[in-house]
Structure formats: structure tokens, C-alpha cells
Amino acid sequence: MTDTDVTLQPKKKGLTRRQKRRLSRGVQYVVFVAAVIAFAVTADWGRLQNQFAQADIAKQMFPDVITLALKNTVLYTLSGFVVGLVLGMVIALMRLSSVGPYRWLAGVYIEIFRGLPALLIFIFVGVAVPLAFPGTEIPGGTYGKVAIALGLVSAAYMAETIRAGIQAVPKGQMEAARSLGFSPAKAMVSIIIPQAFRIILPPLTNELVLLFKDSSLVLFLGVTLEERELSKFGRDLASTTANSTPILVAGLCYLLVTIPLSFVVRRMESKAQEAIR
Amino acid sequence: MSRPEIEVRGLHKSFGDNEVLRGIDLEIGQGEVVCVIGPSGSGKSTLLRCVNLLEEPTKGQVFVGGTEVTDPDVDIDAVRRRIGMVFQQFNLFPHLSVTENLALPQRRVLGRDKATAARIAAENLARVGLSEKADAYPASLSGGQQQRVAIARALAMGPEVMLFDEPTSALDPELVGDVLAVMRMLAREGMTMMVVTHEMTFAREVADRVVFMDGGVVVEDGSPERVIGDPQHERTRHFLSRLLDPAMAEVEEEISDQVGKSGP
């Protein structure tokens, strides 16, 4: 037999491609069902319910979990987002500057704050700064501290996003604006940045989701009862009741916000895709 | 002829080692329409972009309306207000409606109030025959309509000179006519125009002068009848014959040589 004969003949032994695919899928289903059954059988359902789903404890959390904890989480997130956006914009423009030291400084900032854990920055802002500069008071108390800590972290990410957005605006836009007599600054503000924001709206919203979760780090600043946000609120109640239901409820409150936001981001992304076509 | 509206003296432009313009001298009088033609890579677009300093010349001077554009201390934004520019890719602002495309630059750059800017925008949209598209967004317009809006946007700034960088090259053939009609109207009204183009019919009918460029120099400069009808240089003849009848072009000599050598 020649080589060509071998390749052209259907293989006699072993499985065909279709059979292999069917077998592989079958095995995956079996593993899945087995895992579910194993969990259902071994789990102590009574204990789980007792620990996580006690209706009366959950009831006891309302309305404070919404009117206080969720409200504070949203407040921390938005203030951090605003600080991050403004600072991020400044850093992005520095990164694109024709002045070398500005570019360099912006690069250093981005590398440092993207490389550090957010928790470390919270501790830094909340504890280290007041100790290092006695007498200085960050305005706004805890709210101010959180806004600055979250802002410092998110500015580094947002700066990179904004820079990418500005660079994604076609070069012809700046040329058209300049040829109409716009100064570089005016062209940036009226023509380039509005278009850049359209491009980066989805990643910026993603950043908002991340901040929403990072706001839980307030936990480590030591806050008053009135300043508690979801995580702290849930944990406090969990320890007073010696039950995990509050943690579960707090978690659900996060998802109440993050899942719709993620959905909005996906919608925006697919819309942007359509616009390109 | 009084002082030229556009004057280019000894202009050189290099991109790295690539010398694109090798000493251009050119004068365009007030109300004159000059078409610049030439093969791709001949430097004609670069020359045009040097006139409003979108490209910084390496050497030489450019004057527009008596002001030296190439003077490092000149207020370039002020000079550019007098020079309208139309791009091959239109470059309309996609986030603004047609009216806003025309009105925003007037307000931001010229400081006109909202009502004045809107009135001048409407006037210029009417000039290019697109009043009914005032509230449309650029993405919903055809290429020809976008280019006419781009011309109107430049005109709304009240320029003394208009630069056209291959204004019809990105258009579907059936849309070219509308844009050329607007440009013809401008020429009749006495606008000083410098047009980089491949539209030979337009050049022949509308231009006062045709400039043929090749390899970064001006090869021929004269009336359309002379440069297009009776070219004096072999390079011009070669270019025109390829442009007017692309199907008749022979395989270039260097290539046919290589084919001959590599053959058996």
C-alpha cells in the first residue's frame, strides 16, 4: 500500500471523531451529576440552613442593611470613583504630554499604584498619613479617607484606560480640529476627550464594579456605627448573632448592584461592536 | 498680480531619511485655483499639509496671506483660521450632529455666540445643498454628503484660502460629482484653492493652473491646457497616460527585466 492509500481510507480501528466527541461529552455529564449528588448527600442541610439562612436574623438586618450599609457602600464607591476619574484624567494627560518628566512621573505613579494591594493603600491613608503628618486632617473624616484611598488606587487603572481611549480616537480628528484653528488644549477638551469617553465607557463601568467591591476595605479603617458599609455591617452582625446569615445577605446586596452593572457593560460592549461594523 | 495668497519658498521636508519634498517653490495668487497632481508618494499631500503646518517643514518658508506660517513665533491657530482644509477621510466629528460640526468650531475658536454660529452654519449647509441633514449625525450620511459637510464646516470659519487633500479619493465613483460641483461653485465665487487631486476632468475645467509633482519636486507648472493637454516632460506624459487609460499601461521595465532574467 502507498502513503496515499493510508490517508484516504477511513480508520478501521479506534473511535471515529463523532464517537469521541459523544464519549467526551458523556463523561463530563457523568462527572457533573456525580458531584452534585455527592454534595447533596454529604452536606448537612439542617446545619447549613441554620448557619446561612435564618429568616429571623435576616429580617433583623432590615432596613439598616439597605438604608445604612448599602447607602454607605454606594457613597464610598462613587466618591472614590470621582476622585479616581479626575486624578486618572490628569495622569493620562501627563502620560501623553510632550514634557518628558510628566510622562515619567505618570508612568511611575501607574506602576506603583497598580502594583500595590489596595488594602495597603487603605492602611497607608487611614493610619500612616495621620501618624506621619500629625495635625493634618483629611477632610470628610472616614468618607474623605475612603474617597482618597479608593481614588488613588483606581486613578492608576483609569489613567491607563483613558490614555488608551484618547489614543484610539483617529489621528484625523486632531488634525481636523487643529486645521480649524483649535488650540491643542481646546481640541483635546471639545473633540478628543468626548470621543475617548464613548470608547472607554464599558471599561470605566467595569472599574466602578471593582471599586464597589474594594470599598469593603473600609473595614480596616475602623469606622463608627454610622459609617459602616455592607461588609463591616454583615460581619458585625454575624459576630453578635454567631451566625453567618448576615454575611450571606450582605453578599446578596453586592450582587444586587454588580450583576446589573455587568449586564449594562456587556450591553454597551455589544452596542459598540455594532457601531464599528 | 498683487502679493500671492500662498507662497512657498525652498520647501524641504524629510521623514527620517526619507526626503519627501526636495525644494518646492510655488506661488498661488488671490482667487486662483491650483490643482496639484502627481503619482502617489510624489509629496503632493505633504506639500499641502505644510501649507497649514500640519506637517512641520524641515527647511524653507511658507507664507499665507502675507503671514509667515513657518515662523516659530507665529500664532499658528490664528493663521489656520484663515485656511480651510478638507481631508480625504472627511474627518467630521462623529459625536456631533451636522449642525454642531459646523457651529462648535465657530463658537470655540472664533468666539461667536450660539445664535450667530447656528445662522452661519445653516447658511453654509445651504451652500453645499445639505440643509435637510442639519440634525443628522455623520455616520448616517453617505461619503459624498460627509465631504460636503466637511467643506461647509471649513467655510463656516470664513477662510481666505481652501486646501483640498484628495477630497474625492475615498468616495464611491457616483458620489464624486456632488463634491466636485461644490468645489466648482467655490472656484466661481473666487475662493483661492489648492487642490491635490486625481480628477483630471476637474483640473482641466476648473483649475487656473496645474502643478505636476514627482519625486518631491515640481516638474511642470502651467495652464491645464499645457500641463494636461501638451505635457513637456516625459514623466508627466507617462503619469497622465497611466491615469487616463490605466488598462493600457505596460508592465514596468524593471519588472519585465527581472522576469526575463529569472526565466529559463
Describe the structure.
The complex is a heterodimer of chains A (277) and B (264). With 277 residues, chain A is an all-alpha fold. Chain A has a domain at 73-223: MetI-like (MetI-like fold). Chain A is built from 12 helices and no strands. Chain A has helices at 3-8, 17-42, 45-52, 55-61, 64-95, 100-115, 118-132, 141-168, 171-179, 184-214, 230-241, 245-276. Chain A is flat, with a radius of gyration of 27 Å. Chain A starts with a helix and ends with a helix. With 264 residues, chain B is α/β, with parallel strands linked by helices. Chain B contains 10 helices and 10 strands. Chain B has a 6-stranded mixed β-sheet with strand order 6-7-8-3-9-10, sandwiched between helices. Chain B has a 4-stranded antiparallel β-sheet with strand order 2-1-4-5, covered by helices on one side. In chain B, helix 3 packs across helix 4 (114-127) and helix 4 packs across helix 5 (143-155). Chain B is globular, with a radius of gyration of 20 Å. Residues 255-264 of chain B have low confidence and may be disordered. Chain A: Residues 70-265 form the ABC transmembrane type-1 domain. Chain A: Belongs to the binding-protein-dependent transport system permease family. HisMQ subfamily. Chain A: This is Amino acid ABC transporter permease.
